[in-house]
């Protein structure tokens, strides 16, 4: 939950509710440590747009071979997206110069 708080310092419970489908009150209790997250709640969180960051926090310092491979693939995916964005920007600037 600390990672989630860091990602969403404002309206944390609401952000958690949006990503898990849980009631805001339940999310507030989970954030306060009064409730256990539960496996369905955790699964929804891992399946959300911030699932990679949540999984990274869960894994902590553990470095099994499969996790090292996953981390490399995630980094590669980020680089591919960044490269595609830079390509779009480059083409846009080229078109602007040609006009």
What does this structure look like?
There is one protein chain. This protein is mainly α. The protein has 6 helices and no strands. It is flat and about 60 Å long.
Brief overview:
With 99 residues, the chain is mainly alpha-helical. The protein is 76% helix and 0% strand.
Features of the shown structure:
99 residues, 6 helices
Order of helices and strands: HHHHHH
Put simply, the count of helices is 6
How much helix, percentage-wise, in residues? over 70%
Assign the structural class, choosing from mainly alpha, mainly beta, alpha/beta, alpha+beta, or little secondary structure. mainly alpha
Average pLDDT figure: 93
According to DSSP, the number of beta strands is 0
Q: Profile the largest sheet.
A: none
Shape: flat
How far is the N terminus from the C terminus? 51 Å
Specify Rg, calculated over alpha carbons. 19 Å
Low-confidence runs of at least 5 consecutive residues: none
Strand content: under 5%
Write the layout of secondary structure elements.
Layout: H1 2-7, H2 12-20, H3 24-32, H4 39-46, H5 51-59, H6 65-98
Helix pairs in contact: 2-3
């Amino acid at each position: 939950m600390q990672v989630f708080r860091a990602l969403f310092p404002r309206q944390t419970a609401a952000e958690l509710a949006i990503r898990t489908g849980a009631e805001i009150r339940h999310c507030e209790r989970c954030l306060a440590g009064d409730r256990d997250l539960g496996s369905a709640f955790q699964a929804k969180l891992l399946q959300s747009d911030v699932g990679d960051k949540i999984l990274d926090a869960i894994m902590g310092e553990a470095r099994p071979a499969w996790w090292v491979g996953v981390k490399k693939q995630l980094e590669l995916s980020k680089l591919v997206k960044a490269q595609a964005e830079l390509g779009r920007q480059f083409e846009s600037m080229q078109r602007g110069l040609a006009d």
